[in-house]
């Protein structure tokens, strides 16, 4: 409402309706690889900021990372650290605090770990020796790796998280197959084997 008072004290009033313009609407498209080891996504707004310039665009990637937000932030990039299904949400807010949101799901597929090395020393019967290995996983620390070592002589396998080495004593000479398996806990399993030749040790006559 507008009020006008003249020099004689006469007052006139009038009401004026201000149309804030259309409310914003939200939508987005995305491109990228859904494979964990190579995933990288480009998100692009397809909605409208409404009738006013200077809308704020907020992007929630659904993985607990920091929300990307800014005026006219109509495109963003994001990389996921672990395999899962994520709900990505964009919220568009105009300067009048009118807002709209849209959500889409992104599926990131697991990738099995890789055994980078497996070192097996020379073994002699009755003498302990230690085999060691190293592995890598695209998820890094987000997926602890479980190692299982089977030394091939009928003794129970040894298993544990980050068990990257195993010490063993073969009771008898011969040829054995040492097998190491690495499991990321999300269905990704890889294994490697080595042939172990255990040397005979001559008896000592005392």
Give a written overview of the molecule.
With 206 residues, the chain is mainly β. The chain is 0% helix and 50% strand. The protein has strands spanning 2-5, 11-14, 28-32, 41-45, 56-60, 68-71, 75-78, 84-93, 99-108, 114-119, 123-124, 128-136, 146-150, 158-161, 165-169, 174-183, 189-199. The strands form five sheets. A five-stranded mixed sheet has the order 11-17-16-13-14, with no helix packed on it. Strands 6-5-8-9 form a four-stranded antiparallel sheet, with no helix packed on it.
What distance lies between the first and last C-alpha atoms, to the nearest angstrom?
116 Å
Largest sheet: 5 strands, mixed
SSE-based structural type: mainly beta
Q: Extract low-pLDDT stretches.
A: none
Query: DSSP strand (E) fraction?
Result: over 45%
Mean pLDDT: 88
- Sheet with the most strands: spatial strand order: 11-17-16-13-14
From N to C, what is the helix and strand string? EEEEEEEEEEEEEEEEE
What is the total tally of β strands? Answer: 17
SS field, number of helical segments: 0
Query: Residue share in helices?
Result: under 10%
Silhouette: rod-shaped
Characteristic terms for this protein:
single chain; 206 residues; mainly beta; four-stranded antiparallel beta sheet; 17 strands; 0% helix
């Amino acid at each position: 409402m507008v009020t006008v008072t003249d020099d004689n004290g006469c007052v006139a009033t009038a009401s004026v309706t201000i149309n804030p313009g259309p409310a914003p609407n939200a939508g987005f498209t995305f491109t990228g690889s859904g494979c964990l080891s190579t995933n990288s996504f480009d998100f692009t707004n397809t909605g409208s900021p409404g009738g006013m310039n200077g809308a704020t665009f907020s992007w929630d990637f659904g993985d607990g990372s920091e929300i990307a937000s800014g005026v006219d932030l109509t495109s963003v990039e994001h990389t996921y650290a672990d395999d899962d299904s994520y709900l990505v949400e964009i919220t568009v807010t105009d300067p009048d605090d009118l807002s709209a949101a849209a959500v889409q799901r992104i599926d990131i597929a697991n990738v099995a770990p890789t055994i980078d090395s497996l070192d097996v020393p020379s073994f002699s019967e009755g003498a302990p020796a230690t085999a060691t290995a190293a592995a890598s996983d695209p998820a890094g620390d987000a997926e602890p790796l479980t190692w299982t070592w089977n030394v091939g002589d009928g003794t129970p396998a040894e298993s544990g998280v980050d068990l990257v080495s195993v010490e063993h004593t073969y009771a008898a000479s011969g040829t054995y197959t040492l097998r190491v398996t690495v499991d990321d806990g999300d269905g990704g399993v890889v294994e490697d084997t080595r042939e172990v030749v255990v040397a005979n040790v001559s008896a000592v006559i005392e």
